[in-house]
User: Fold Talin-2-like from Tropilaelaps mercedesae.
Amino acid sequence: MRNDLSMGTLSLKVAVFGGKATKTIQFDPNIQVFDACRIVREKVPESQLDEPKEYGLFLVDEDPKKGGVWLENSKTLGYYLLKTGDLLEYRKKMRNLRIRLLDGTLKTVLVDDSQPVANMMVVICSKIAKQLFEGNDELAMTRPRRLVVYRFDDKCISRLGPSVRARGKRISPWRLAP
Assistant:
């Protein structure tokens, strides 16, 4: 297999809207993904419908079970070791995610699919908490529940040994504090 990075250009197939429009475009492997998205918008007229920041490039894996990977805007195309003929999809990164809460209510949150799951969870939890507290003034005004403190009973302390008794009364789940 030859190294396409030394050749100067990469010929990549770019699919827009799930394959409705596919075009082969030549890219310099040293350009950033952000600039590659701009080139796709210029060369494929079907891609100019919405805000450019809502779209990104998705590298489709040859094995459909694995899915693929989102290309980060700050990385170069050469970083992903792309070969001539690889398929990229120009996809919308933002989507609505419907979440059913424990009380049965449905909340809809706009998430960025190109982000790692850890980052998405932070966004989802903060948006849901914001929706809950903004929508319910009574909930925002309630006091937190009283903290219940438990103490060890004498039998438990004698079984656990001197390290537990070193500081006197200790917290335990067996008996309520006076």
